[in-house]
Amino acid sequence: MAMFLYRLGRVSFHKRHWFLLLWAAVLAVAVFGAVKAPAAPEQSMSLPGTESQKAYDLLDQRFPNSGSSNGATARLVFVAPHGQKITAAGNKAAIEHTVREIADGSQVKSALDPFTTHSVSKDGTTAYAVINYAKANSDLTDATTSALKGAAQDARDAGLTVEIGGDALSQMATPGSTEGIGVAVAAVVLLITFGSIVAAGLPLITALLGIGTGVAVITAVASTIGFSSTTTTLALMIGLAVGIDYALFILSRYRSERAEGRDPQEAAGRAVGTAGSAVVFAGLTVIIALVGLSVVGLSFLTKMGLAAAFTVLVAVLIALTLLPALIGYAPNAVLPRSVRKKAEKDKGSESGRTPADGARTPEKPSPSTRWARFVIRRPLLVLLFGVVALGTCAVPALDLQLGNPGDESKPTSTTERRAYDDLSNAFGPGFNGPLTIVVDARNSDDPKAAATTVADDLKATHGVVSVTEPRFNKAGDTAMFTATPSTAPSSTKTKNLVHTIRDEADDIKASTGADMLVSGSTAVNIDMADKVTGAILPYLAVVVGLAFLLLMVVFRSVLVPLKAALGFVLSVCAAFGVIVAVFQWGWLADLLGVQTVGPISSMMPIFLIGVVFGLAMDYEVFLVTRMREAYVHGERPGQAIITGLRHSGRIVVAAAVIMMSVFAGFIGLSDSTIKMAGLGLASAVFFDAFLVRMTVVPALLALLGDKAWWLPGWLGKVLPNVDVEGEKLNRLKPVPAAAIHEAEQEPGRV
User: Fold this and answer.
1) What is the DSSP letter of 330?
2) How sure is the predictor about 732, in pLDDT bands with cuts at 50, 70 and 90?
């Protein structure tokens, strides 16, 4: 592989015009396809195999015109002035006028008057009107949402307190500003790391081109293969991360090769042949993690994983071809300023090579070198420190409780949160999470009696405060009604209540012949949490198992891949600990703007594992391949660790700081789930890069010594030797660039 990539790097450098035109054409075609493609459909939430999904499917069959569509819903909550009743003539007239005003909207499917639907609290202070729209919230026009807000304001002008709940005004968080801050931080870090504006800009340019191309292709084919408008969310995040990482590593290796006196084209070839091999395998591990999301069994998550995996593939291809091509336009400009100044004094060199960057003069040990020497002097102490620190941070994760935070987790400054609180105060905490009960009495001798039996049992169930009258379909064989819990939707007691009701289904069937199913948003969230929890271990087994085999091929070792997997588990558990401590226990909640603590989003474990696994394996491959390369080329284990950290430590630190900055930017958003993801990812990157890869890994390798690279003889014969270290390249006699094209001069050379 190293030889193939070496030749690819040289060709890309030499034929840079063609490669630049090729990628420009690919981007242009992708953008054209994205612009011309029909709009992507809205992502429908589906939980195959769960009871809540079976209930929804049954409702679609038996109640086809029930209005349970995917359209948006708004719930206007009206609260009377202090000392007044909502049913007073003036207040009632204002509410009815508001509902009629909204009902005239072109996208409104129905507007239910609270006085005809009996949606008034017992104390007579609060009422709510339900507005159903024909379109999903993302498809509502500005005129529609403005009309909703305007009607609410009219009611406020009449003296009422009005808040708007539901999803009609909910918009997907747009982290554009935070991404901009992350890119700005990345530029500063790259500039400090490389000491060159051009070198700092190249990773950003290639990363942005990569996600631009990837997202454009995904958008172009979205309607054809069923991707939704939200599929690209994960692709954007991962594409930016790996795009910068991969370019960082190859560019850093190019500078190292130039420092050893090689001409630009040879340095580009060797950088792609060695660092590019690491990029290929790092990319494969990320792709495995993302494609492995299909194990969970959630279609929208599978599609997000596939889209992100494609973006990673594009990032790898760009790093291997476009990056060396761009380097070819300014081969010296990517070098440190001090080296370029020194080159100007040595222009007498016929080859055009830049003198070694300190190759012939003693260098002051870098921080990475000093740290490496400290680690190999006290490996056991450093290892214990890293493991204990990670274990301590992971302790809160033992109390992890999954759920799906709703409007109750939003800031009190939002109208959705205030509507939630008003309804909770007036109708009880369980009103915001009612349970939909579906009774399939097709096999029952007396469907009405069966439905009555179910309703009576529910009324007698502890934790249920009210049950509506059964509503039958036209055939009269299926009934549905609503049961309101006494506790909040995210409460553990509500979860236990759902399981208690479901446990009674067998007795109901035995006595009446009818099937009882429990659904509704609260039940859906519970089912999703259970489904994700059950998928975590299979997902880890598949992803870590495949990555273990891949890393055995890369490092030709059994213990190094095992160490990599265990280190990843430690960093993820520590990140979970941070999330639980902040969002579930409330530690530092005020400082981070978390206004309500409660269960952790059910998608967070899988999401965090998938993203962090990819980044962790990036850092592992980048760092340890350089150590392996030094070891294979004859250095002792301890010296190989120093060499690896000297060359790659600074790059891993820079990549980690960039990713932490990007992810930390999401903490400032108001959406609880995005805030949670930002903190979790930033914490995980910190733990994995600094405590695992830069601390635990070198300490453990120092303790293992030569045994770290042990591989059974029979296994060595079975595993392919891909030569990631570029051992074959050391036997090459480099071809001078002048011999390829004597007359061609690299334009833009500094």
Assistant:
1) S
2) low
pLDDT in the model for residue 327: 94
**Cβ 447 vs Cβ 480: under 8 Å:** no
Q: Residue 3 — very low, low, confident or very high, per pLDDT cuts 50/70/90?
A: confident
pLDDT, residue 545, reads 87
Rounded to a whole number of angstroms, the distance between the first and last alpha carbons of the chain is 32
Asked if 213 and 27 touch (Cβ cutoff 8 Å), the reply is yes
Whether the full predicted model's pTM is greater than 0.70, yes or no, is yes
Confirm if 51 and 519 have CB atoms less than 8 A apart: yes
- Give the mean pLDDT of 697-725: 86
User: Which residue blocks in 260-298 are alpha helix, DSSP H?
Assistant: 264-291
What is the pLDDT confidence band of residue 60, given thresholds at 50, 70 and 90? confident
CB 232 within 8 A of CB 219: yes
- Which residues contact residue 61 at a Cβ distance below 8 angstroms, ignoring those fewer than 6 apart? none
439 DSSP β-pair partners: 479, 516
Structurally, at CATH architecture level, domain 1-45+198-349 sits in Up-down Bundle (1.20)
Residues 382 and 385: their CA atoms lie apart, in Å, by: 5
Q: Which CATH number fits domain 434-519: 3.10.20.90, 3.30.70.360, 2.60.120.260, 2.30.30.100?
A: 3.30.70.360
Measured distance CA(497)–CA(517) in Å, rounded: 14
